[in-house]
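pinging the channel bc i need a second pair of eyes. not urgent but kinda urgent?? the chain im working w is below, pasted from the shared doc
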Amino acid sequence: MIYKDRVYGPIEINEQILLELIASPSLQRLKDIDQAGYSEPFFPGTGHARFEHSLGVMILLKKFGADLEEQVAGLIHDVSHSVFSHSIDYILEEGSEKKHDHQDNIFSDFVRNSEIPKIVEKYNIDLDYILEEANFPLKEKELPDLCADRIDYSLRETLTYGTGDSRLVKLFLDNLVANNNSWIFKNFETAQKFADNFNILNSKFYAGSRTALMFRTAGDCLKYALNKGYITKDDLYTTDSQVLEKIKKELSADERLKLFYDRMHNKKKINNNPENFDVEVYCKSRVVNPLCFNRGKLMRISDINPAWKKVFKTEQKPKKYFLKFEE
């Protein structure tokens, strides 16, 4: 199979377990799960699916020499995402506005109840080993470290959101190494450029005010539809399109639902005003502090650039917004 990726270009995938997982219902469902939440109404032209990010993480790991088990773990790492991705953290108690961790909290159970265990076991790979995150430090690490997940979505969104072009992405990839289970930049200059770009993505897109609007309005619409019985909790683990179709059928008979639907589609004015607001909304904030080689030593950029310590201290805290809805 030749897969053409927007970040890494064409890549050949021959491993049967990877091909079978890619073709599985759990991975195919992610083609209709928006990576960012519900992008188009708030960030027109930027929509991209969890599916391409999932393959991207696997491809990145493959390119940097990770073993097959880690590639498998990278490929399936997002299968537990609900419809509209992190919007679920604004609906169900299993999630958190500040942490955006719903998919992590249900991941193991979700995978075990899917077709994935049979595929993995067919190729004599231990499912328990695959599900243990600590086994795969290249795939996943806590902020502010880099990991394949974090690297891929930031490179992918550099292109989709336009904070950089393919030359910048190539610069980052050409200057990365995977060494002793850590991602390391070859020099301080590229590491700092990556961190700066990541900070722009965070402030404008990952944790910006429009993102808070997107999550809150999508969450409110889905939660109302759930409470009214227009959709079920099981529907939250189908696809974006399927849930929207169910909601659309009820719009003409429910004015309140129509209001939530219009807000979700950015058709109602909403202000961020701490002096006059209807609801407080949080967004998870992300900041990285990459490792790099500098004058023969392995260092974090904050060790070289003390100003980054202030950035890190500020940006690691969840962002808080005060939304006022106009009917």
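so The mean pLDDT is 96. and Residues 66 and 205 are 30 Å apart (CA to CA). — does that match what u expected or am i reading it wrong
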